[in-house]
Design goal:
Elements lengths: L1 H20 L9 E6 L1 E2 L3 E3 L5 E2 L1 H13 L3 E6 L1 H9 L6 E4 L9 E2 L4 E3 L1 E6 L15 E4 L3 H10 L2 E4 L3 H10 L4 E5 H10 L5 E5 L5 E7 L2 H16 L2 H13 L6 H62 L5 H73 L7 H32 L8 E4 H12 L8 E5 L6 E4 L1 H18 L4 E9 L2 E8 L34 H11 L3 E6 L7 E8 L1 E2 L2
Helix pairs in contact: 6-8, 9-10, 10-11, 11-14, 12-13, 13-14
Length: 593
């Protein structure tokens, strides 16, 4: 009897555990997922009556990972939100709305949706929403877009069948249709609406999320979505939609301004190249003239040597005359040798000038690519968000969203200012206009302060340690330059270390101070080890990739400072930890204790 009771308790424990993991959903009572029956390509019911689309495929993977049985309930879009709020369905996917956030639970964003305006080809200039006054524009209900159109003076037509609206537009109805970018791309392609054209709008993109009345379910989905993003599952399923229909919105007039600026810069480069070529031609011409002079002098030397030989034969008649002629020949030979040496030196200088010109052109090309990438990113954000705020009524967006846009404009402006300050700082150092103010410095206190400032920026799980600090170390040095170099190296390590640790070590060595920053991060590519401190390094270097927001001049600033201090700076692989990089520098410093 006691044994049977144990078996019953064990089975009950197992059943309760399974029920907890599945959030109460079973094969007999599966999770009910509400989908729009006509919202391609994200979710729809195909001709065979089966739920289809990218949302359906992704949700199947998500629920399988959560071990939650699920079934789909197609419905018209107007009923989906009500079904979720009333508990008729357990889960759905829709665009985040701050007006519904108090009544429903939203997950983290699965993807971001951008707006486009669709018009007939040849009937409208591409100026976004700047010239829509009096035009008839069709769209599905969206409060922020409707408010913006009202302010612009457009005639608004709310539709409930976007496919029909697009076909009507192609047939001559309406002046334009506003929809998401992936919808426009899909419907123009699927229904061959070849007389339509699209243009990006600088409207706030919308977040596409899961929504449910069950907060515990949304919490479980958020945790699993983080894993799926890290494992590339989201990109695998939504990659086609995201890469072909979504991306950074840049109005065409901004592109025109950028292109005009690039042409102006290119014109300046062409003028500089033309001047360099003229200087090079003059140097080459001078080298050729010297070579010709050397040849002439060599011929003269040969003639003089011949005269000397003849004079020696006549020496019997006039020994004094022969001695004079021999002396003249020797002087001419020395002059020819000297001219030949000058010609060789001029030829070598000409070759150096040509190589310098070639390298200068290469560096200008790299600089242009680097700057166009790094300047465009913050400028686009500033222009786009400020244009949005200027074209919208103050009540079109909630205060918190307006504040968020202003913070983004401020953040990108500060990043642009930081990049320009770095360039000016590097220019000052290279031009020897920056002064060094040496003072008595508590090195221990400064190093502890640097570490404290950087710790809040560390990735989760990464630690920052000071290794064997020298107690009471005091030195005569420039505090500002010590901070610039050390903080640059620390910032570089923080950017590239996602796990493990960062260690800062410093000590007295060879009459100066030695500092190294060691990390367990991405490591340094082999091809960059000889050029990591270059002034105009490639935009795919260790200090600058597509995910970063600076032009990668930090290490160049460090190199310029250390060179001015008559010090040394370098980098090597972190073989002690088996991965990562060690940046170090040494500078001659007067140690006071």
């Amino acid at each position: 009897m006691k044994l049977r009771l144990q078996y019953v308790l064990l089975l009950l424990t197992f059943a309760i555990a399974v029920n907890a993991d599945n959030l109460g959903y079973t094969n007999e009572k599966p999770l009910l997922f509400g989908i729009d029956q006509d919202y391609p390509p994200l979710e729809y019911v195909d001709e065979a009556g089966n739920p289809s689309g990218v949302d359906v495929e992704f949700s199947k993977r998500l629920m399988k990972r959560l071990d939650i049985p699920m079934t789909f309930k197609p419905n018209k879009w107007a009923a989906i939100a009500g079904d979720v709020m009333q508990g008729k369905v357990d889960l759905a996917m829709m665009v985040y709305s701050p007006y519904r956030s108090g009544d429903m639970n939203y997950s983290r964003s699965v993807l971001r949706l951008y707006y486009q305006i669709v018009t007939r080809k040849g009937e409208r200039k591409n100026y976004g929403l700047r010239d829509v006054k009096g035009e008839e524009i069709a769209l599905m209900q969206s409060r922020p877009v409707v408010d913006t159109l009202k302010k612009s003076g457009a005639k608004i037509v709310i539709v409930y069948d976007l496919i029909k609206a697009m076909k009507d537009l192609a047939a001559g109805d309406y002046d334009a249709v506003i929809c998401y970018r992936y919808q426009a791309k899909y419907m123009i392609s699927k229904y061959k609406l070849n007389n339509l054209q699209t243009e990006d709008l600088t409207l706030t993109p919308r977040e596409y999320c899961y929504v449910s009345h069950n907060k515990q379910l949304i919490d479980a989905i958020n945790a699993e979505l983080d894993k799926m993003v890290d494992q590339g599952v989201v990109e695998d399923v939504y990659g086609n939609v995201a890469s072909h229909f979504d991306g950074l919105i840049i109005p065409k007039w901004v592109w025109g301004a950028i292109i005009a600026g690039v042409f102006a810069i290119m014109a300046g480069i062409i003028v500089m190249q033309y001047r360099n070529k003229k200087n090079l031609k003059r140097a080459l011409a001078l080298a050729r003239d010297n070579e010709e002079k050397a040849k002439v002098n060599e011929e003269k030397a040969k003639e003089n040597e011949e005269k000397a030989r003849l004079s020696e034969e006549e020496a019997k008649k006039s020994a004094a005359e022969a001695l004079r002629n021999a002396d003249v020949a020797r002087r001419n030979a020395k002059e020819a040798e000297h001219n030949a040496m000058i010609a060789n030196q001029n030829a070598a200088k000409a070759r150096e000038a040509a190589e310098a010109a070639r390298k200068s052109e290469e560096l200008k090309d790299i600089f242009m690519g680097n700057m166009s990438h790094s300047l465009r990113t913050p400028l686009n954000a500033i222009i786009g968000f400020s244009d949005l705020l200027m074209t919208m009524d103050e009540t079109a967006l909630p205060k918190d969203e307006q504040q968020n846009l202003l913070q983004l404009i401020n953040k990108n402006g500060l990043e642009l200012l930081h990049m320009i300050n770095e360039l000016l700082s590097l220019s000052d150092i290279e031009g020897q206009s920056q002064l060094f103010q040496r003072e008595v410095t508590d090195v221990d206190a400064e190093m502890r302060q640097f570490a404290a400032e950087m710790r809040p920026q560390l990735h989760e799980g990464v630690t920052l340690e000071l290794e064997e600090p020298v107690e009471g170390m005091r030195a005569l040095l420039d505090k500002k330059l010590l901070k610039v170099v050390t903080m640059h190296l620390l910032d570089n390590a923080v950017q590239h270390t996602k796990e493990g640790k960062i260690t800062v070590a410093y000590y007295v060595k060879e009459g100066g101070m030695y500092v190294e920053v060691k990390d367990t991060g991405d490591g340094l590519p082999e091809k960059l080890k000889n050029n990591i401190f270059g002034l105009l390094s490639d935009r795919n270097t260790y200090t600058h990739d597509e995910s970063q927001e600076n032009p990668g001049l930090g290490l160049s600033v460090c190199k310029a400072i250390i060179d001015r201090c008559n010090g040394k700076i370098g980098v090597r692989d972190n073989t002690e930890d088996g991965r990562g990089t060690i940046f170090w520098y040494w500078t001659p410093t007067e140690i006071l204790n």
